[in-house]
Write a structure and sequence with these properties.
two-stranded parallel ribbon; about 50% helix; globular
Length: about 100
């Protein structure tokens, strides 16, 4: 992914995602990346996940439609679902992490 040249808008989105992840998740748990088809949303997803040192177990990707989820999963190589399906996905934390978060 190092040879990827981002457009100005993609670079701005990348910076916004990194800022949110590093400093804003306590205030806003979800980051939404929106734009018209073909503007490069899927292109930067894998790039930003790699850049932050995350993997597919750390990230939940979801889209409004099944077609969009399919495209994002195909381009990023990571699991993706519809928002509707994600609502029913249960993610539980360990007792240690829950205790740490409460303190």
């Amino acid at each position: 992914m190092n040879d990827l040249i981002l457009s100005d808008a993609q670079a701005k989105a990348l910076r916004a995602i990194k800022e949110w992840f590093l400093n804003g998740t306590a205030v806003q748990q979800v980051f939404g990346l929106f734009g018209y088809a073909g503007v490069g949303k899927s292109t930067i997803v894998k790039h930003v996940i790699d850049d932050l040192g995350l993997d597919d177990e750390d990230v939940m990707q979801a889209c409004f439609t099944g077609k969009a989820a399919y495209v994002l999963q195909r381009k990023s190589g990571m699991p993706c679902s519809t928002i509707h399906r994600l609502i029913y996905h249960v993610s539980e934390e360990s007792e240690t992490l829950i205790t740490m978060a409460q303190n």
